[in-house]
Amino acid sequence: MLACIAGQVSYGQNKPAPKDDINKLDAFGRRTGMWVINQPANKGEGGLSEFGAYNAGLKTGLWYKVSNEEGMLAAETFKNNVLDGEVKYYEKGKLTCIGYYRGLNPTHDFDTIFVTDPVTHDEIRRIVPTEKGTMRHGTWRFYDADNGRLVREEDYQLDELVYHRDFDMSKADSVAMDKRQRKLPHNKNKVYEPPISKQVSYTNNKTKS
């Protein structure tokens, strides 16, 4: 079921993580550590699985979502149970979108975010209510699933579209554009990936939530 992402989360071939190490609760009854959550097929919709880590009952770090029929659907970054950081979305296992979310601190009523004025390029401090949870913030790139070509680019600040551009370029040009965009200040945050020796495989686990 999760074989399509085994290479990204395994520390050794044919060495699955012990079942005792997943789907655990802490002393307060909150989800903690690595969890594998399986959702069976229902009302014509295929089943899917997702896995990632909890901290004190809140999703944290990189979470994967996989369809039983179509393979990888999403790789999303969480902080305090809300989307925060890079996300990737797929169609039938092929990458179609890379974007960025800015999570808001759920422990406060308001959060402070710096944005860039599109005209003057000055940095402006914005105070926003946290009830929304998360917002698109940064560059989103959309790809042709068949050939990997960059077809559209959108730039968001606090969920507001401030720039967009459609592309008609070769795959090589698309890759070059992608590299340039990753060097922009608001796209420099990298998703942490543990060293190979500390990564684990959940490919063979069938544990349900």
Can you put this structure into words, describing what you see?
The protein has 209 residues and is mostly beta strands. It has one domain. It contains two helices and 13 strands; from the N terminus they run αβββββββββββββα. It has helices at 6-9, 171-182; strands at residues 24-25, 31-39, 48-55, 58-67, 71-79, 82-91, 94-103, 110-116, 123-129, 134-136, 138-143, 150-157, 160-166. Strands 1, 2, 3, 4, 5, 6, 7, 10, 11, 12 and 13 form an eleven-stranded antiparallel beta sheet that branches. A two-stranded antiparallel sheet has the order 8-9. A hairpin with a 2-residue loop joins strand 6 (82-91) and strand 7 (94-103). The two termini are 16 Å apart. The relative contact order is 0.17.
Compact overview of the structure:
The protein is mainly beta. It contains 2 helices and 13 strands.
Instruction: Work out the count of structural domains.
Output: 1
Helix content: under 10%
Could you spell the SSE succession in H and E letters?
HEEEEEEEEEEEEEH
Name the average pLDDT: 80
**Count of helical stretches:** 2
Major sheet details: 11 strands, antiparallel
Strand content: over 45%
List keywords for this structure.
209 residues, mainly beta, 11-stranded antiparallel beta sheet, two-stranded antiparallel ribbon, 13 strands, 8% helix, 46% strand, flat, disordered N terminus, disordered C terminus
Write the layout of secondary structure elements.
Elements: H1 6-9, E1 24-25, E2 31-39, E3 48-55, E4 58-67, E5 71-79, E6 82-91, E7 94-103, E8 110-116, E9 123-129, E10 134-136, E11 138-143, E12 150-157, E13 160-166, H2 171-182
Antiparallel strand pairs: 1-2, 2-3, 3-4, 4-5, 5-6, 6-7, 7-10, 7-11, 8-9, 11-12, 12-13
